[in-house]
Amino acid sequence: MSKLDRAQSGLFEDVKKCNLCDMSQHIIIVEDDRTTRMRLAAYLREKGYRVSEAENADDMESLIAMDPPELLLIDINLEGKDGLTITREQRAISRVGIILLTARDDQVDKIVGLEMGADDYVTKPFDKRELSARVKNLLARIADIGQAPQGAAPVVNFGPWCFDRIRRRLVSAARTEMLTKQEFDVMSALADHPGQTLGRERLAEMMGRRAMRSNDRMIDVVVGRLRKKLERDPAHPEWILTEHGQGYHFVDPSTV
């Protein structure tokens, strides 16, 4: 092979690698423990993801401005602006996937994180394979944005609302409410079974969230977030009703 051919071959490999990077999903790890951050980044890069590392919220925001990610892995216990604050701020402006990392097995932290819009959480020390599975599943759901679930009506009208599956939002004459991944999954499951009571475990399975099955409270948190977005009075819901001891059901629009 001539010198020019070798140069062209090398250039082709560089371009090919660049294209592969462009196609891979971008993850930002926000973790102030350098060793944990580097090990986790190395592991996810081995899985084929593009990974950026941030020590704090300021570093993360700079990275987002340069290259918006599909997923944020955020340690709750950051110095300065903590993970819960970051989650609340990001959820107000973005539907980026968010998985919280916490060293404490603290149920309150987990529930607050979900209430603020996090999609999932992992307690340290965590199994890398479990985290990888959670990352893969969440990114798969994110990649579905712009596509209605197969066989499902792309639009469901009820009362003053339109549930737009394509854009993953609730729309009324007064306002538009964007849905997080969890909210969209629960809303879809309920809308697909109007008038039927779905237990919490069943909802978790339909969401592909078997990890939630052992904790009914997590489903309750997501339903609570949905009610705040669509109900006139979340304390006295009209559309997503509670069947005590059984689960939830979505009122059949055709019967109203």
Order of helices and strands: HEHEHEHEHEHEEEEHEHHEE
Q: Kindly provide the name of the CATH class of the largest domain.
A: Alpha Beta
In this structure, how is the largest beta sheet organized? 5 strands, parallel
Secondary-structure-based class equals alpha/beta
Overall pLDDT, averaged?
82
The tally of structural domains comes to 2
Describe the 3D structure.
With 256 residues, the chain is of the alpha/beta class. The chain has two domains: 3-143, Rossmann fold (3-Layer(aba) Sandwich), CATH 3.40.50.2300; 155-255, Winged helix-like DNA-binding domain superfamily/Winged helix DNA-binding domain (Arc Repressor Mutant, subunit A, Orthogonal Bundle), CATH 1.10.10.10. It contains nine helices and twelve strands. It has helices at 3-23, 34-46, 57-66, 83-93, 107-115, 128-143, 181-191, 200-206, 216-230; strands at 26-30, 50-54, 71-75, 97-102, 120-123, 155-158, 161-164, 169-171, 176-178, 197-198, 240-243, 247-250. Helix 7 (181-191) crosses helix 9. Mean pLDDT is 82; it is low at 1-23.
